[in-house]
Amino acid sequence: MTPASRIFGRSLRMMAASALVVSAGGCILTKDLPDPALDVPNRYKAAATTAIDRPPALDWWRGFRSSELTQLMEEAQTVNLDIAAATARILQADAQARITGAALLPSISGSGSGSQNKTSGSNITNTTIAGRRYATYSASLSASYEIDFWGKNHDAALAAEETATANRFDRDTVALTTMASVANAYFQVLASQDRIRTAQENIASAERILGAIRQRLAAGTGSDLDVAQQESVLANQRAAVPPLRVTLAQNMNTLATLVARPPESAKIVGGSLNRLGSPRVTPGLPSDLLTQRPDIRRQEAQLASATANVGSARAQFFPTIQLTGQGGYQSAVLASLFTPQATFSSLAAGLTQPIFDGGRIQGNFDLTKAQQEELLQSYRKTVVAAFADVDNALESIKQNTERLRLQRAAVASSRRAFNLAEQQLRAGTADIVTVLNTQLTLFTAEDTLIQTQLARYLAIVSLFQALGGGWEPRMERPVNAL
């Protein structure tokens, strides 16, 4: 080993020893996450029980028992553009974390150079001396390292890593939102198709009643007013169909966008809300929500990143210690460049202490503290809002289930009244006002029933979304385990 190699190796060992000191005692000023002081309830207000009997499955959408919905869900997970963009943000955050973390390691670079120089000639006492040519060749290796004694670079790297973690949870949040949007749009498609079918059936009923009234008019037992009133009912029923078709087309186009396809190439069959299953899910305990909701985890990671930034900003008040070393070979003759006589080396250490910077470091520290406080309050709000989301979804499912039961009874009664009124109309004993009222009541009740079914399914999707989507299966402890 040459003397230069020994000296330079000794310099690198000194830097490595300094790095070990930092790893053992660095980040001495970084504090743990601030206490969010959250009041986590023991149970949800709208939950019937605290028992955890059936948490959401990872593929929770299969509980609706629709193969087309399952296909759309699985396709959206792989091709949705919002999810793809969120995935790209993860790659960006990972790269930024590597860039920031590079400050924790020594910077080593190599260089080589060669130059030709010539001195000018001179004339002394009528004697001319020609210029002299000489060359210089060098090859060197240099290294520098900032001793992170106060944890500035460590905290900055930790902040970047927590930001990358937050981006991963952001991707999960985007994916969950996308899944909920696919389910909601699909249910809107089914509801629009049901409402269009019901409207067409109502149009047929209104035409049948109009024919009966016209027969009464021809027999002399009806009037033009009766005909005009029924024609108005029929016209209103026909006018209700185009907006329903617009809603159907819009939601089909929304589904096409969610699966990254143009509307022309998206083939969505649809069907009926009556063919769907109704998955049952219990919300579990509120404390589970803190680990299941990706938006809560994202806020937590962002708070951790802000806390690390506070530690890094605080460390800027203290001195910066920099080590630099260089070693290599330098010679005027290329053939003797790598000989022991051509070696050189240097080692330097520097310390920089901020004295006056116009308040920049203090301002940066105050800024990071304020950002940490903002994220702490945002974290609290996200948690509290998550509890409210679950309660709202549970209450919505409960009330819409009851409303659906009552509305089905209302439709059955309305249909029975309408059938009786139509029979009496054909028998010539019905009052036309009664006929008009019963058919309008039936038409409204049937349309309301479909909208109530839709509201219940949307509430179920809202509950899955509020719970953070599907949960990993719990590991059951064996009965005979010690």
What does this structure look like?
This protein is α+β, with helices and mostly antiparallel strands. The chain has a single domain (3-109, 136-466), classed as Outer membrane efflux proteins (OEP) (Up-down Bundle). The chain contains ten helices and six strands; from the N terminus they run αααββββαααααββαα. It has a four-stranded antiparallel β-sheet, covered by helices on one side. It has a two-stranded antiparallel ribbon with strand order 2-3. Helix 4 packs antiparallel against helix 6 and helix 4 packs antiparallel against helix 8 (294-315). The longest helix is centred in the middle third of the chain and has 68 residues, at 152-219. Mean pLDDT is 85; it is low at 1-31 and 476-482.
